Amino acid sequence: MYNFEFAKPSSVADAVAALGEEDAQALGGGQTLIPTLKQRLASPTKLVSLKGISEMQGVCTGDDGALCIGGATCHATVAAEAGAYPALASTAAHIGDPAVRNRGTIGGSLANNDPSACYPAAALASGATIVTNSREIAADDYFQGMFTTALDEGEIITEVRFPVPEKANYQKFVQPASRFALVGVYVAKFADGVRVAITGASNDGVFRWAEAEAALSANFSADAIDGLSLSGDDMISDLHGTDAYRAHLCAVMTKRAVAAAA
Amino acid sequence: MAQVTMTVNGKAASGEIEGRTLLSSFLRDQLKLTGTHVGCDTSQCGACVVHVDGVAVKSCTMLAAEADGADVATIEGQANADGSLNVIQQAFQDHHGLQCGFCTPGMVMSAAALLKDNPKPSESDVREYLEGNICRCTGYHNIVKAIMAASGQDVGAIAAE
Amino acid sequence: MPKDGGIGASSKRREDVRFLTGAGNYTDDINIHGQAHVFFLRSDIAHGTITSVDTSAAEAMPGVVKVFTGADFEGVGSIPCGWQVTDRHGDPMQEPAHPVLAQGKVRHVGEPIAAVVAETLAEARDAAEAISVDIAELPAVVNMKDALKDGATKVHDDLTSNLCYDWGFVEENKDAVNKAFDEAAHVTSLELVNNRLVANPMEPRVAVGEYARGTDEHTLYTTSQNPHVIRLLMGAFVLGIPEHKLRVVAPDVGGGFGTKIFHYQEEAFCTFAAKACNRPVKWTSSRSEAFISDAHGRDHVTKIELALDADNNFTAIRTETHANMGAYLSTFAPSVPTWLHGTLMAGNYKTPLIYVNVKAVFTNTVPVDAYRGAGRPEATFQLERVVDKAARELGVDPIALRRQNFITEFPYATPVAVEYDTGDYHATMDKLEEMGDFAGFAARRAESEKNGKLRGLGVNCYIEACGIAPSNLVGQLGARAGLYESATVRVNATGGLVVMTGSHSHGQGHETSFAQVVAEMIGIDESMIEIVHGDTSKVPMGMGTYGSRSIAVGGSAMVRATEKIINKAKKIASHLLEASETDIELKDGAFSVAGTDKSVAWGDVTLAAYVPHNYPLEDIEPGLEETAFYDPSNFTYPSGAYACEVEVDPDTGKVSIERFAAADDFGNIINPMIVTGQVHGGLAQGIGQALLENCAYDENGQLLSASYMDYAMPRADDLPMFSVDHSCQTPCTHNPLGVKGCGEAGAIGSPPAVVNAVVDALQSAGKDVTHVDMPLSPDRVWAAMNG
């Protein structure tokens, strides 16, 4: 790692101020950022830890019934405390490994938007709202491609609000080495329709599968996916699976998620 | 350089660190607690697992500065007060849950964290929990067996010897 | 009943206490006052000509002690290769120079170009980034068959081609083998890949060099399986340091699996730089560095053919293998696809005619060398796959076909140069059928199918040659070293013993099992015996631990030395007891006169040896210390039968191991608990090879699986509980303990069982799949099913 200054503010305001410095970068749980720094792929002059900001910690239920998760809340806490939204708790309980879940944060994961991460699928399928220090961003507007989001420089995810669906499930088919999603499908059924978000598969990062959503909104059963398929043209092809294989897995995992949710 | 102070295995410890100093480096290089090992640089092998404020973390993927003021437990502090092996350590020896010993500190620390939350884990609970701890020697058979034995379960039927 | 101590007891491991309490002493735990750190600038280009290296900016960076480049090593020796293979035409293999730091060209990603020694590792790395290197890139040679085409780019300009050797074995049998194929009633052929692997001991390599100016003595602390071998190779061939001025220490070593046998550039560098900088120099590999600098394993591409007569008897085997050497010849690399592979092609079967052809090829990849099993897994995999395929083609039971062709009479001279001393292949297969509950398989398959899964059962046998090896034989085969082992047993005045063994323990538990042997021989408590290893200043000589040789060769040397001790102690006892030496018996730690109640305790005899007040000085010297060298007369031949049951998810191609049974014959066993653990670990590595692990390069010589993000290590939830048995025991006839060795069996025997099982599962669903190359990752299995 290149050296950097370390700061651990105790308020969002102080964090935003610290991040105003040139080449300062926010540090969530560091479970992706620190390995990246070890490879010297980034060279921030200052890391601003968000772990000391108590207002960004914890899980609660908002007035509108949405589950509100502080941006610096670690996956283990979500797994333990998001009982009001079991599919989300279960998703959090299977991110990384236990030690990673004790450090990694929801805000960090969403800000990084790794194309194989789990939380982006959960947020997109749930129609979550990404709350930052300056605004609220709908999930549909937030994810803008692999490692790319609507966040501005220095903007901090302070909270994520998840509307709680009637039924939901996340199915992850793991890449055997990294244990990230080779393909992960999050299905959420709301009163007004079904949302399906897929991670791990596309060169453009997490995406919604409109055709499956339409079919499932009409008939929320695994059979509804029969005959539907995604093109592998824009999908990731690597050592662990071709684009065609990933496209195939998208349908398989969608069916399984629907079956598990129903 | 900044000053960091924490409690390690029940004793106060402090030192000068850079921003980039990892908790694993602080433990190994400054406190000379070399029982915590570093086996990878992508946060996967788990040889570096320690407890920070009661939960398992990968000390190679946490800045020492983040542990300022924390209560840290490492493999060096796990034995009983009289120096004898604790229940988990003893089970690892009894069931041959280690060979080269390099992953062992992380395994023991992860096992301790598991049993704290889940005092009677099933075999699949243990295997799933160890997702972040890689062992190249044992094939995990005897590690899983040791952890289940440490939880007080009868492992006699699992396999011979 | 479990035995309480001694041979055959599952004694708990004494080394565990330090490992379980964080008190181990691994090389990276060693920090010497004044030490500097080195960071190697490694090539990120697979093949190219170095046009310039400018270190001036780096030299001016903070903390920098000295910057080294290839120019600093001109005149320094080449990293040596320890084995010279002679090709089919009687010519020696092509053997390129292997510099400590690249000279003129880079030949694989990861090759060190320059090294920065600085006060801290971070400063060394910072400065390394300031080194300016210009490389004119050349086409990378990656695919072995392309590498041998006319006009292919050469990895080494001074060699005639990329062919290291073209080996034929047994060359004189070639025509007879071809004739047998012409006359065969059935021929089964199979082309397959034995996938390239990275050994991945959990402890990355570390080297610390130290130099004492006052005495001109060098010390190297290193993560090695054989410190004496490193002392010899580095001292004699690279740096020109005589053994008496060079100490090599391999303290606690966190796993080896073969990749820590070899002498590496970083060891030579740290030793060299410690003198050049006049301060200790330490290198600690990161895992990322390990992927591009530790020797890889396997990487064979093979066509195997099996000829059978009308009664399904095997009549001949013919193979053609391309074996990847990588860019340079690592220490034992040439021996792996030849003498550790061709000699095993008979397997457990009485096939009368065998011809093996191996073309070893240079490519722009990391050097390839021995990895757990080394040649024997490659032989076993192709043989057991082709036998399985033959059974399916002929419509006969795979187990019955194997049994029909088993070797049943011993000793048995194979057509590939080796003679098996003992074995009972029906016994291990019988045991396996019982352990594997084959009778219940149909019901288990039906249950799996009810859940939408396919289920398959795969069985195979294996034979291995361990206890490496008779020096006179391996010398004829090209080994440039003897492969004996030594042990010194030092008895202290009060009766405790120190055994200094040339074997090295890096997970095998020698400190426990070796002590059990000596305790049994003398009849004293194991706690009275200390096993010392891993330090050339303490142990007189040693060839180290690999090839499942420790107990068979190192243990035998220890037995011989202990016998000398006992003989001398008996002389002392006979004097003390005033009896004839021939009447003295040693039992339970006491010497007695046969037929009398006169006896003297072990401790009284050892005390007399060092306090010779009443002592036959005219007949024997005081003191009680003996050394023995043991050179085996043959290899040992562990064997066994393995069975794997898998479930395949037809929707995703994911394979899960549901049951795995291993019936091994290791001859006599010292510590059953440790032996079982060795098998478990071997199985995990073999299953890892079969399902998960894949060291892959792209066409430009870039490593695609360069970290644990892409190289899939087996984890706890990838594996089942194993069923392991070693009650079938046909003791080795030619070593004193009757032992055969157990360290590699699991890794040798398990891959074909897994692949056979998956093929069985897929065929059960009517899929016309006869082979899938390892690793059988979900995408590959799915593609095979939907091919």
Can you walk through the features of this model?
The complex is a heterotrimer of chains A (262), B (161) and C (787). Chain A has 262 residues and is of the alpha+beta class. Among the domains of chain A are: 1-49, Uridine Diphospho-n-acetylenolpyruvylglucosamine Reductase, domain 2 (2-Layer Sandwich), CATH 3.30.43.10; 167-261, Enolase-like, domain 1 (2-Layer Sandwich), CATH 3.30.390. Chain A contains ten helices and twelve strands. The longest helix of chain A is centred in the last third of the chain and has 19 residues, at 243-261. The termini of chain A are far apart. The model of chain A has no long low-confidence stretch (mean pLDDT 97). Chain B has two domains: 2-77, Beta-grasp domain (Ubiquitin-like (UB roll)); 87-150, [2Fe-2S]-binding domain (DNA polymerase, domain 1, Orthogonal Bundle), CATH 1.10.150. Chain B has helices spanning 23-30, 87-94, 104-117, 123-129, 141-150, and strands at residues 2-8, 11-17, 49-52, 55-58, 71-73. The mean pLDDT of chain B is 96. In chain B, helix 2 (87-94) packs across helix 5. In chain C, strand 18 (412-413) and strand 19 form a beta hairpin. Chain C folds into three domains: 27-138 and 202-255 and 260-293, Aldehyde Oxidoreductase, domain 3, CATH 3.90.1170.50; 296-469 and 634-785, Aldehyde oxidase/xanthine dehydrogenase, molybdopterin binding domain (Aldehyde Oxidoreductase, domain 4), CATH 3.30.365.10; 484-630, Aldehyde oxidase/xanthine dehydrogenase, molybdopterin binding domain (Aldehyde Oxidoreductase, domain 4). The longest helix of chain C is centred in the C-terminal third of the chain and has 28 residues, at 550-577. The mean pLDDT of chain C is 97. Helix content of chain C is 27%, strand content 23%. Chain C is built from 19 helices and 30 strands. The chains are: A alpha+beta (262), B alpha+beta (161), C alpha+beta (787). At the B-C interface, helix 2, helix 3, helix 4 and helix 5 of B face helix 1, helix 17 and strand 30 of C.
